[in-house]
Design goal:
single chain, 8% strand, four-stranded mixed β-sheet, globular
Length: 238
């Protein structure tokens, strides 16, 4: 029986990976529609944001954290909410932190570099610094820790790895990883977990960043604006 419909973008959308992973682990039949802003989607999210969820029981949800929690709680024996009430609120804390302080500036850094928004070197540099400041918080937190919360894998790890995967896909080469060993170790551990690999393709780590703070070439700008890869561009945060 279909549990519900998830509206998202094609490919590994940062805010949808964790939802898909937990749904599959919980044996939930999730109908995936990778065609946003169709009438069926707009009935759930009037702003046309993704992900959005419409349950077979009539429940309508937008906002990725709410959807991730709803999907996770379908397993009454789940360990993904941690062991204590403090674990649970810390899971929410980290999910919110990655969903605002990390993914938003990463994408704002990305968009001008591929020609989707006007390029300004100082603006890109500002968003890069914002992202790094947030990542530094995580780097310090993960010192002597294998997981974001507690001693075992939780929803925070799965959800947040999907979020920061966007950075590893475009910006985080070998030098960056050497400068951020805790985040890099944690990320590689989580994305190689069976629950994560079950819904996404393994991303090869970069030797050098795909994108640096250089104005995009005019021809590349035109191609990117008209043929942006699925799940990238503006769609990465909507």
């Amino acid at each position: 029986m279909v549990f519900g419909t998830l509206f998202t973008f094609p490919g590994d959308h940062p805010r949808s990976i964790g939802i898909k992973a937990v749904a599959k682990a919980n044996n939930l039949d999730l109908r995936i529609i990778e065609e946003p802003r169709i009438p069926e989607h707009l009935e759930v999210s009037r702003l046309g944001k993704v992900p959005a969820f419409h349950g077979e029981d009539g429940l309508k949800l937008f906002e990725c954290i709410a959807i991730a929690i709803h999907v996770t709680m379908q397993n009454e024996k789940t360990t993904l909410f941690g062991q204590t009430k403090q674990d649970y609120v810390n899971i929410l804390k980290w999910m919110s932190f990655f969903n605002t302080e990390i993914i938003i500036p990463i994408v704002e850094q990305y968009l001008p570099l591929v020609g989707i928004r006007p390029y300004n070197k100082d603006t890109v540099d500002t968003y890069d610094k914002m992202t790094q400041a947030a990542v530094d918080v995580v780097e310090e937190h993960l010192t002597n820790r294998s997981f974001l919360v507690g001693e075992d894998l939780t929803l925070a790890d799965i959800f947040c790895a999907g979020i920061i995967a966007f950075g590893f896909q475009f910006f985080y080469g070998r030098s960056w990883r050497q400068a951020h060993p805790n985040v890099s170790r944690w990320y590689q551990d989580i994305v190689n977990q069976p629950i994560y690999l079950a819904v996404t393709q393994k991303v090869e780590l970069l030797e050098e960043p795909k994108l640096t703070n250089v104005a995009p070439k005019k021809a590349e700008t035109l191609r990117t604006c008209t043929e942006a890869p699925p799940g990238e561009g503006v769609s990465a945060v909507e």
